[in-house]
Design goal:
Elements (H helix, E strand, L loop, with lengths): L9 H15 L4 H8 L3 H8 L7 H11 L3 H5 L5 H4 L8
Length: 90
Amino acid sequence: MEKSSQPTSARAVFARNLRLARRLRDVSQEALALQAGLSRTYVSEIERGERNVSIDNMGLLADALGIPLRDLVDPEMFGNFSKGKGADLK
């Protein structure tokens, strides 16, 4: 059975988009966490899809990255990076 490349849950979409947005901006988890007022461990757990993040913390992370929150929850936002050139960022 072939695994789908598209995340299926909102948590998975947010996790993937957060990680890709952070890496595209060359920001460490620690720097992002500090800017957002969160712990690095918490950010790591969010990026791995292990945490059910609140909308408030989603907003803090988006603001810290300087991007609209809607981009972090859009399943198509970073879709081109999961197929091809940016796949190594996964």
